[in-house]
Amino acid sequence: MTRKTPSRATDKFDDDDYPAYTMGRAAEMIGTTPAFLRAVGEARLIAPLRSEGGHRRYSRYQLRIAARARELVDQCIPIEAACRIVLLEDELEESRRLNEELRRTAADPSRPPGP
Question: Could you tell me which Gene3D superfamilies the record lists for this protein (predicted)?
Answer without folding.
Answer: 1.10.1660.10
